[in-house]
Amino acid sequence: MPVKKHIPNTITLLNLLSGFFSVTAATSGHLTLAAWLIFAASVFDFLDGFSARTLKAYSDLGKQLDSLADLISFGVAPAFILYRMMSEAGGGITLWNTFPGLPFFLLLTPAFLVATAALRLARFNIDPGQETSFSGLPTPATGLFFASLPFVAREGFAGWMPLLDNLWVLAALALFFSYLMVSRLPLFSLKFKERSPRALVPAITLAVISVVLFLLFFLKALFLIIILYIFMALILFLFFREPKPHRP
Q: Where in the sequence is the domain holding 142, given as residue range(s)?
């Protein structure tokens, strides 16, 4: 088999390993390092797909490996970051010293990110209708949002810093994003495969705004970009839905 056939899968493994090292960093309390590693995983996630398309090196193995890597990097690793932030917000509490009190159940909420990320990725693999648009929030978007939280919490951002030091707020974010991943909310893709203006205009608009925000705020911008992405999808869904064809 030509060497080029192995390039996409090798990059996918770098995605997975970035997620693994992110978990180890988060468990050691190095949350910004853990966040950086998730960002690195997102770069590898882009590059494996790009290389597969460029080299025409598609495979069923690569498709399954990509989902497994995404589960680690954008499901498990962000959940560890969130759990560590919640533990610190509660003064160093853990699941094991809060049972069966209310903090125990709040600290369980990051587990929902892992479970719903797995469901989201499995559903994506068997749904051919998600090649040019998504049903539910993509797992990498969720991972990048939670990877941005250590930067927002550390440096402050428009008054969000105190909120991100609150157990209830962090638990609510975990449940909200878990729901978004398994919801049927249609979200546009940034792959620009679809030619219709309805698909291209919001994608190009978000891409331009994202570049500006990233230049201004760097990794903190991911916090705003993902919120903007969800908001734009909701606006399109509520006010610009294409009418269903009439059936006599």
A: 3-190
**What is the per-residue pLDDT across 74-118, written as a single tens digit (0 to 9) for each?**
999 999 999 999 999 988 898 888 888 899 999 999 999 999 999
What would the pLDDT profile of 151-198 be if each residue is shown by its tens digit? 988 766 555 566 788 899 999 999 999 999 999 888 877 665 544 556
3-state helix, strand, coil in the chain (%, to 5): 75, 0, 20
The domain that contains 110 carries what CATH number? 1.20.120
Query: Would you state the structure tokens that stand for residue 150, as one six-digit string?
Result: 């250590």
Give a yes or no: residue 72 inside a domain.
yes
Query: Coil, strand, or helix at residue 172?
Result: helix
Q: Are strands 186-188 and 133-135 parallel, antiparallel or unpaired?
A: antiparallel
pLDDT of 133: 65
Q: Give the C-alpha separation, 63 to 61, whole Å.
A: 5
Q: Are 48 and 85 in contact (CB under 8 A)?
A: no
User: Is the Cα torsion angle 191, 196, 200, 202 positive or negative in sign?
Assistant: negative
Alpha carbons 48 and 11: distance in angstroms, whole number: 5
Peptide bond into 100 cis (omega under 30): yes
SS3 228: helix
Does residue 218 lie in a domain region?
A: no
What is the spatial distance between Cα 230 and Cα 31, in angstroms, rounded to a whole number?
25
Number of separate domains in the chain: 1
